[in-house]
């Protein structure tokens, strides 16, 4: 794995020259429009990058975008990777490791998720302050490379408290309905049953999704502060669940995305 990380990093550097990103951004389902705010300098398709996994979802573009956002050099993943696509955890988190090698010092993550908390409604935002990992595997399983991080990384602060508070302050200032909460990560790809939603709420979850946590584990392993936002696209706390389609989820995400983008941009500008 280490050889592949260095090889991929070297290839990307050969394509982007002396551009060294400060902030990495991972854009979730229906949330790729933030790229429109970036003054793009380089674009690389995942399919053209050696060793880089390719997103198999039709609503994920599969591009690395390099450019300026609010005066900062950023690299954005327009389309993330998921365990349910058939990739292993090392493949899913490979881009995070490469972005760290390219120079990023912080990482911003977004996702679409289902609300478990009756106070958190469809279309609201939730800044993640902690998580529960119910994925089937861990990206750190196997041989540890000290060059990447310690064998047993601390997870007492998986999401930067400073960035969480700044994000909440920005949301309040702009009258954006935004909560902080606990994100539960499951394998997917099926959505949850009523009993599963109830269980996830009982164990302490405020929202549930199928991503984010593997990348956050690896970010912590490599010493990268994390800021993450969920757009709540459906509600799993009702006695009778309404059927939900991916198309419904994407529509809600697209409507709420400008608010998420505003928080991302103002937070990045403040750094």
UniProtKB/TrEMBL annotation:
The EC number(s) this enzyme carries: 2.4.2.1
Gene3D superfamilies given in the database record: Nucleoside phosphorylase domain (3.40.50.1580)
Keywords: Glycosyltransferase, Transferase
GO molecular function: purine-nucleoside phosphorylase activity
Pfam family, one: PNP_UDP_1
Pathway: Purine metabolism; purine nucleoside salvage
Domain Nucleoside phosphorylase as annotated: residue spans: 22-269
Segments crossing the lipid bilayer: none
Family the UniProt entry places it in: Belongs to the PNP/MTAP phosphorylase family.
Function (record text): The purine nucleoside phosphorylases catalyze the phosphorolytic breakdown of the N-glycosidic bond in the beta-(deoxy)ribonucleoside molecules, with the formation of the corresponding free purine bases and pentose-1-phosphate.
Self-association and partners: Homotrimer.
NCBIfam families: PNPH (TIGR01700), PNPH-PUNA-XAPA (TIGR01697), PRK08202.1 (NF006054)
Record's protein name: Purine nucleoside phosphorylase
Organism listed in the record: Paradesertivirga mongoliensis
